[in-house]
Amino acid sequence: MRSLQIIENYLVARGCEIQKVKDHLVEFRLPGETSRTPGGRLSVARDGSLKMWHRYAEKGLAAGEPWQAAGGIRLGDKSTPALATHIDQLSAAKELSALTKVPKFSSEPQQRRSYDPEQVWRAADALLQSAGFVASRLHGRYSDGTDQKPVCKLLVSKDGVATAFSFRGDIALPSPWREGRQTSDGKKTMYVTGRDLGLDGDLSPPWSSPALPRPAPAEWRTTDLDLNRDTCKSWMAGVTPPADHRHLVKGNAVLDGSELRVYPPGHKFVGTILAPMFRPDFMGRPDTVELCGAQHLMPKVAFNTDKIMAKGSHTVGAFVPFPGLDSLMKAMANDALAPIQAWLAVADKKKPLVICEGVATGLAIQQSGAGNTLCALSSNNVMAVAKWVKQTGMSDLFSGVVIATDHDIGRTEAGRLKSNAIPRALEAAKVTGFALAVPPANSQFGADARDLLGQGGPQAVRDFIASAASAADVEKARADIFLPVKESQLAAEPEVER
Predict the structure, then answer these.
(1) Residue 407 in contact with residue 439, Cβ under 8 Å?
(2) 371-386 pLDDT, tens digit each
(3) Residue 175: its pLDDT value, please?
């Protein structure tokens, strides 16, 4: 619907984040909003009339022209003020200030403090360990000391709020932890802010100011230079992986490892494949990326995994690009920054840019001729990478952009998807407007592009990427995935070792 596209463009231009678009309703987050469930709602009627409100804004929204007061929206036993206008009056062509909540007690703009996520992480991590939890080898997971199995998870939002929850469904932490909202599956959570942790923070612009980009705090800008130097030195040693390396022959697919490197003889990780990771430049420059760590692809399984992030790596927004990884590494300055042009110069822009998860998956897509790839390393990271591609205009340089997901359709006994990989990819496709590719319905549970390559050769991978369609069309075509839980009668399936 054209009206919904106009609404999305308008909200994005005001710094809002689109969460969901369904029928006549758009759900969105305000700039800086960290709630798990977005509070913003904007509905459109058949005659083009618009109504906007926010579930958590007791005094309503500050929106300016062309919005007018439109009474209240009843939410349970409370009411929140609504605003109204017509779709023909909405425009994103002029400069717009950010949408905000109307101040509850004061009409004067107030300054508040923002907190560096890295500082919050370290403080919250120390707080959990002081409460008796033991950090596991998996980043952000903690055991209770009785065994090594993780029982607790820590998350920190980009706005500096730390949230902890237990895999057992309940959690009790001492002050300054406070009780938070339950997760979607009913687990109790607790949270702390930077202020709770005694951090200084940085003064942010007043609430009424436009949402302007600003450089990240100094500590966030600092990468692990020792790790970067080791990564660069090991890469420049130029040792390519052996043809029979575990990660090049899994899934009955043989991959070419010439675009990767292994740690050289004498290194403590000798024989492990080194996959350098990059992230967007901290100053927001669209023509520059930053080396931010490395993923290790090990020659054998250790501690129940054959993949692990190098200690000191930053994973948020990170990706591994193909082809041209070597070009980026050789163009790097000061062991950190590299011009994105070094990658674009070797990419085939006549083919689509494919955002996928794993490194081997990306190699399978690129080497089959299906497209250029950015490997986001995790389904949790697909949204961040997709938004960066959209916001920098990189999407306009390629014949198209495809978000390719794994066939993670296994379900629990209750009928819920075991993995959120496909829903996350679907959400990213909706937010960015990129096409979505899901492996064919007859693919095995958990299959990715590498599995398709092993089973059907390069053409199977090319067909997979070529099948990409809009998020809405994929939802309709793959009702077996997106049916509500109550309607789904699918049995639980065993996990597949990846």
Answers:
(1) yes
(2) 999 999 988 899 999 9
(3) 85
CA distance 259 to 366: 11
Q: What is the mean pLDDT of the chain?
A: 84
Q: Residue 266: CB partners within 8 Å, gap ≥ 6?
A: none
Distance CA 292, CA 284 (A): 15
Quote the tokens at residue 388.
């960066």
* Rounded Cα–Cα distance for residues 325 and 323 (Å): 6
Maximum Cα–Cα distance for the chain, whole Å?
Answer: 72
Asked whether the whole model's pTM tops 0.85, one would answer: no
Q: Sign (positive/negative) of CA torsion 481, 485, 489, 493?
A: positive
Q: Is residue 327 within a helix (H) or strand (E), and if so which, with residue range?
A: helix 325-330
- Which letter, b or e, does each residue of 183-195 get, where b requires 16 or more Cβ atoms within 10 Å of its Cβ? eeeeebbbbbbbe
Return the CA Rg of the chain.
Answer: 24
381 token code pair: 């990271």
Interstrand relation of 261-262 and 68-75 (parallel, antiparallel or unpaired) = unpaired
User: From start to end of 270-417, where are the E strands?
Assistant: 273-280, 288-302, 305-309, 320-322, 337-339, 353-356, 372-375, 401-404
| pLDDT tens-digit series, residues 64-76 | 888 988 888 888 7
- Mind giving me the DSSP string for 419-436? --HHHHHHHHHHHH--EE
- Across the strands, what pairs with 483? none
- Count of CB atoms situated within 10 Å of the CB of 60: 19
Go through the domains of the chain in sequence order and give each one's CATH number: 2-101 (no CATH), 114-193 (no CATH), 219-482 (3.40.1360.10)
Bridge partners of 26, per DSSP, are: 21, 42
As given in the structure block, the two tokens for residue 7 are 């609404």
110: pLDDT strictly greater than 80: no
